[in-house]
Every structure is written in C-alpha cells, then in structure tokens.
Specification:
Length: 98
C-alpha cells in the first residue's frame, strides 16, 4: 500500500533549510530517500520505524520515529503519524538526532 505524505509547516521549513544548506547535502539526500521509503512502506527495515512513546499527535495520535541515517554523527530523524485520512502520513518534524 502506498501512502501520500503531508507535511506540517514546521516539517516543510526544516526540509527546505536542510535542502538549502550545502554542507548538509548528504543528510538531505538521506532524508529524501527515507521519505520515499516512508511513502512506499512505513515499516521498511532500513527506516527502523518505531513508536515514540513520549509524544502524542495533535489529536492524540501515536507518533512514530523513522531513521534517515544510522551510525552517523547528527543523524536525521523523521517524526510522523498516520492521518485520519486513509493511506496518508503526516510528517511532523525532520530533525537531527543529538
């Protein structure tokens, strides 16, 4: 099942900043690849998607975390939830992992 992605304003800004930062071209490429995988299969093994237990979505939805990179300093993470609309994922945030 393919999903469509909807981005929050915050996630749009974060993705645009990442795209425009020439020093982070490698991270941007990894995030874009992970977003494509997320659309195709949110449970793809390389995403290592899992429920993020300390946060809830705006309507109490479960929040999930997907890895854009592994074993790399300042690896990026994609936080998302499943929309109430069928076959739609809401990308909440795209941030580097501390």
């Amino acid at each position: 099942m393919k999903f469509s992605l909807v981005f929050t304003k915050e996630a749009e800004i974060q993705l645009k900043k990442l795209k425009n930062d020439r020093g982070k071209a490698k991270q941007y490429k990894a995030v874009v690849k992970s977003l494509k995988l997320l659309k195709e299969n949110p449970r793809h093994p390389s995403l290592q998607s899992h429920k993020y237990r300390t946060l809830k979505g705006p309507d109490g939805e479960d929040i999930f975390e997907a890895y854009a990179q592994q074993n790399t300093p300042s690896t990026y993470r994609i936080f998302f939830c499943y929309s109430k609309k069928k076959e739609q994922i809401v990308v909440i945030s795209i941030i580097p992992h501390p």
